[in-house]
Specification:
The chain is an alpha/beta fold. The chain has twelve helices and eight strands.
Length: 368
């Protein structure tokens, strides 16, 4: 019966992506680890690129933080790729650059974050290009930890660990993020991660690829590196710090924008092609099913409602879902966070189908 197939299929897919897959990855990583063969003390030349659009409130502090890194000054350059900023971002960068020759402003036409990053990389001559958000701060040794991992000849991409500082409101993103980092560390130990983060990552200049500006590096680079026969890994000792959005509702709006890009790359980015079988399973389990979790929940709820009168299992499943939705509506923090973020995947898909996704971006509210 079709309705029963939808019930068990959606339930199984949700259970697998949220519980089964993480446990399976943890078990396999423990049994067959593939550690990174890093090189302590490696000091390749590095260009740190900060893409910025109207970031006058934070760009000065961001530059001072990067200039204070524990890394040889003659091996480090900082480029701010200003995506047609209309505030005082450019004057602030120019003022820092006037007294510190390692800082350079690249004024770009409005084209989005990735387009600005591409322009900066084209002009870079360093062995490594590293990337950071304008509102992030790096630990003093963060860059060293990144380049040590890149010294492994099999590794092309490495992302660090983003630490979310205490929010000023009710957002429960931190709980999810700790779970995500736990899973990312085990994926990396198994071979390669399935996603990165924009706050702290680095790529060997020779391995850098230009992707569709609507995709973003966070999702495109890991699988692109694996498609090229390389590794994309996670280095938890490379720390970056950011302020999260203050409320679950603000996080919902940020997630909708993010998932719009996720749907674009899933449907048009050749995300599942030319991958080794194990990594293909990782991408389907961690990315495809996670992005589709909202649709899966809707299918499960509809099937449960249709089958509730036909058996205790279906009635219990329906009642459990209604109770969870009631808890979310009543403001139970983690339930509300999960419901909002899961619904964001559905809203993002609807937005994507209706109007596509732009390449440009705006700063997430409350994170500056």
């Amino acid at each position: 019966m079709l309705v029963k197939a939808l019930f068990w299929g959606s339930l199984g897919a949700l259970a697998w992506t949220h519980v089964g897959y993480p446990l399976a990855v943890a078990a396999r990583a423990r049994a067959r680890p593939r550690p990174v063969r890093g090189e302590p003390g490696a000091e390749p030349s590095v260009t740190v690129i900060v893409a910025a659009h109207d970031e006058e409130a934070v760009i000065g502090d961001r530059l001072e933080n990067l200039l204070a890194l524990d890394y040889p000054p003659d091996r480090l350059e900082v480029v701010v790729a200003s995506d047609s900023s209309t505030d005082n971002t450019n004057p602030v960068v120019e003022a820092v650059g006037a007294r510190e020759p390692r800082v350079r402003l690249l004024d770009c036409p409005r084209g989005g974050k990735v387009a600005a990053q591409d322009r900066a990389v084209r002009g870079a001559t360093s062995e490594v290009v590293a990337f950071s958000d304008a509102n992030a701060k790096w630990a003093p040794d963060a860059l060293r930890r990144l380049v040590e991992a890149l010294a492994d000849p099999d590794v092309a991409y490495v992302c660090g660990r983003l630490v979310l500082e205490a929010p000023d409101g009710t957002n429960r993103e931190g709980a999810y993020w700790r779970y995500e980092l736990w899973l990312r560390e085990r994926e990396s130990l198994l071979g390669s991660v399935t996603g990165g983060n924009g706050s702290i990552y680095a790529v060997k200049r020779a391995d850098y690829v230009e992707v569709d500006p609507r995709w973003g590096h966070d999702l495109a680079f890991p699988y692109r590196m694996v498609q090229a026969g390389r590794r994309a890994v996670y280095e938890p000792a490379a720390l970056a710090f950011e302020k999260p959005t203050p409320t679950n509702e603000a996080e919902y709006r940020r997630k909708v924008r993010m998932f719009e890009h996720c749907w674009e790359i899933t449907l048009r980015g050749s995300m599942l092609r030319r991958l080794p079988p194990d990594y293909l399973v990782q991408m389907v389990s961690h990315r495809l099913l996670r992005y589709g979790s909202g649709v899966l929940h809707l299918l499960l709820l509809g099937a449960s409602a249709a089958l509730a009168a036909s058996g205790a299992v279906y009635a219990l499943a329906f009642a459990a879902q209604l109770a969870f939705l009631g808890a979310a509506a009543g403001g139970v923090p983690l339930a509300r966070y999960y419901a909002l973020v899961t619904w964001a995947t559905v809203q993002a898909l609807a937005n994507y189908v209706r109007r596509g996704v732009p390449a440009t971006w705006e700063a997430a509210e409350g994170t500056r």
